Amino acid sequence: MRKCELFVDGKCFGLGIFSIAFVIRLLPEFLSGPYPVGYDLLAGYAPSLYVFPDDTPLRLFGWAWSPLAAYILWVFWKLSGVDIFLFLKVAGPVFYGLFVLAFYHLLSRGLCWNKKKSFVTAVLFLLQPAVLRTGWDQLREELGFVFLFILLAKTKLDIIGGAKQKPLAVIVLSVLVVLSHQLAAVLLFIALFWQFMNSLIRKGILYLKGFFVFIPSVFVFVWGVYGQFVCPNFSGRFMPIQLPSGTGFFTFTNYFLSDPRFVGGDFFKVLAYVGSLSMYCVAPLVPFAVKGFFKDEVFTPMLVWLCVASYSIVVFPWFAFSYYWWWILLLPVPLTVYVGQALEKWEVFAGGRRFRAVLAGVLLLSIIAVGYASSVFRLGYPYAYTYMPSGLLESCVDFKDVPDISDAFSWINLHLPEKAVIFVPEKFQGFAFLYSRSDLTIRVVPPLLNLSQIVAMIEGKENGTIYAIYYSKEIGDLKDVAKNLATFGKIVVYQLCI
């Protein structure tokens, strides 16, 4: 009885939020057998923990230097002593629970909302397929937003003012944000810049002393960006085959030149991809968010930046912000806050018929979330599959193919000459780290390109015999240059004569 009273009073809402998020994210792990769900879990995190402190497996995805999640995972993995795959099956749900719990903390402490309003809004947040997709494999991003949300709550959304009052806490949290993930760091700096300009206009330069507290985090961010984009230094064994941005600027991309989905200038395909992804991430929230919109110095600049970065590709795809899909996937953060405010304006939390209607909506969304997490329900827009799995019960490869992929790498370890060069698709890079011989050179092929396209790209640049491990259906037209050396189910080892 006492526990029920604590929950009704809101004292256990935080534990409830964490538990709901943890259980929903744990559901696909129960159904996936011995391997963790999530593209990056098998392709990036598992090998990163094995080759720690080498962070090449995660940096091959193209993000700036952000090693904190790998360090934390490695420490707890070593302390646990369990199998790496089992450890990651638990780590994914834990990170998702912490991510949503930090969002709840931001609402209740940063915005000073009451417990009921914060709880309902956080539940609406964690049940969205777009947010579940982030929890599917983006452990670094989740960790970055945990620290960002805590920082915003700690400063009551007044980042510069909070830096003057609690400089040590702000320094530590801002550096942790940068060390965790690039996108969370960018949103922190966007809000910081917005507040900097407003403070400069309204209160003069003396108020900006708190800005200097962020010099360490800015320095770490610039250092990470320089190391990844200006002067990249990958492991000698593993090198990505990088596509040109087409612009000469690392923050901007010519999608018609560098993105395999849009090469050739198909603008209608751009609209199809952006529109289908927005149908899941943005469209369901907009009618409510418009009602609850309010101006502030954190969520307003965050929304402005996310809209510009997400949809600049539609306005000018020849010179648009890079990673537009990741920015779209982050739009539910500010939009859900506005949805919570809209519910307050409609007096939903006072009880009565409107509150029961919202509960019915939450129940319906819960059914969708559980169905999506278990892959009973699958997304229906094919163009969104590139960025969102059709269901969470998926990984970088089909689970039943993992033994065949392992056998293929075992075969090349026995039969290939020393220092041979091997092409593998990005989805296989984790297995290459885990299972390939240490003298072999692995070239990682970008997603969405088949083997024949890569051969055409490097023709004249690399000579001699090259090997490849690929799905047989993803090699394209290579009849004249590809020789089948060994087959393991759908996985084939090829010898390429270029």
Summarize the structure.
This protein has 498 residues and is of the alpha/beta class. The protein is built from 23 helices and 8 strands.
Describe this entry's structure for a reader.
The chain is an alpha/beta fold and 498 residues long. The chain is 59% helix and 8% strand. It contains 23 helices and 8 strands. The protein has helices at residues 2-8, 13-31, 39-50, 56-59, 68-80, 84-110, 115-126, 129-137, 139-154, 159-165, 167-180, 182-203, 215-230, 255-258, 267-281, 286-292, 299-315, 324-330, 332-345, 353-374, 402-415, 429-435, 451-458; strands at 238-240, 252-253, 320-321, 421-425, 441-445, 465-471, 482-488, 491-497. The chain has a 6-stranded mixed beta sheet with strand order 1-5-4-6-8-7. A hairpin with a 2-residue loop joins strand 7 and strand 8 (491-497). Helix 3 (39-50) packs parallel to helix 22 (429-435). The longest helix is centred in the N-terminal third of the chain and has 27 residues, at 84-110. The chain is globular and about 70 Å long. The N and C termini lie far apart (74 Å). The mean pLDDT is 89.
What key attributes describe this structure?
498 residues, globular, alpha/beta, two-stranded antiparallel sheet
